[in-house]
Write a structure and sequence with these properties.
Blueprint (H helix, E strand, L loop, with lengths): L8 H26 L5 H10 L2 H10 L12 H21 L5 H8 L2 H12 L6 H18 L9 H29 L4 H18 L10 H27 L2 H8 L1 H14 L5 H17 L5
């Protein structure tokens, strides 16, 4: 007689977190597949608009819509949403210039930059451990990017590194806003919904810069980007319901594994030796510098 294995809530949370990471990884792979054939603002619009479909359905199921969208801090939400949307623009643009693995690795500098911003703008006191994490993150960034600033480096790579850094900085700034909103008691549903709504509006505004009419295959890919992003957000929200952030933190870094595999299989992107040297340093720095969760 076979034993029935019942997963603990923490294990369920970890599985949901991993599933969320896979959804995000596939979403970024599709964005890279589109290349430069679809204008950036159009990609942001589809990513945001179609993400609201599963997101609103989920909020209705959990009775968080529309009651859970009430807020006392509309200006703070707007600032967080604008920062997050700009980060999305830069992140998507990065994929047009860098291999998907390198773009993903540089994005992990966000926790490191959050610490720097917290010291500079929030006057937080940071312990030596987290300062060590900041140092590791910056060292890893140097290992990965400094050789690209040689005279022989391609301009495409330099642009990609610059875009990736801007994305990481904007993500860090948005995360600080999310942290403040959460401390003020704002509903996670409201934070997620207003971000999707704002990025939809900011995306559609770019129609005046010129959009292209997608082909049938591009329609499928663009809609898939939005749905995957929405499902990824839901899975991540559910993960935090079942498990503590500290328990799931190590599994955040599986995203780099998916990025490497996708880069090799779909795009023939073989990471360089410098990537393999820098990646563990950046990930360790991000892990050490991450916010305390209790």
């Amino acid at each position: 007689m076979k034993k029935i294995i019942v997963k603990t809530p923490e294990q369920q949370g970890i599985v949901l977190k991993i599933a969320s990471g896979i959804c995000f990884a596939v979403m970024f792979a599709i964005i890279k597949l589109l290349g430069g054939t679809v204008p950036l603002g159009e990609v942001v619009f589809f990513r945001s608009f179609f993400a609201m479909i599963p997101l609103v359905a989920f909020l209705l199921m959990t009775s968080d819509f529309p009651a859970g969208l009430k807020t006392q801090y509309p200006v703070k939400h707007l600032l967080r949403c604008v920062l997050g949307t700009l980060a999305m623009f830069f992140a998507f643009a990065t994929l047009r210039y860098l291999p998907i693995a390198e773009a993903t690795a540089i994005s992990y500098l966000s926790p490191v930059i959050v610490v720097i911003f917290a010291v500079l703008f929030l006057k937080e006191v940071v312990n030596r451990k987290r300062l060590f994490g900041v140092g590791l993150g910056l060292l890893g960034l140097s290992l990965m990017t400094l050789p690209n600033f040689s005279a022989a480096a391609e301009s495409q790579t330099l642009i990609g590194v610059g875009l990736a850094l801007m994305s990481a900085i904007l993500i860090a700034a948005a995360l600080l806003q999310v942290r403040q909103l959460s401390k003020m008691g704002e509903n996670a549903a409201a934070i997620a919904f207003y971000f999707a709504l704002t990025s939809t509006v900011m995306g559609i505004i770019t129609i005046f810069a010129g959009w292209s009419l997608p082909s049938v295959s591009e329609w499928v890919l663009l809609i898939s980007i939005g749905l995957l992003g929405g499902f990824a957000q839901i899975l991540m929200t559910l993960a935090f319901k079942y498990a503590e952030a500290s328990a799931m933190a190590p599994y955040d870094y599986l995203s780099i594994v998916w990025a490497v595999l996708i880069g090799i299989v779909l795009f023939g992107e073989i990471p360089s030796m410098l990537f393999w040297l820098a990646m563990p340093v950046i990930l360790l720095g991000a892990y050490v510098a991450r916010p305390r969760t209790g």
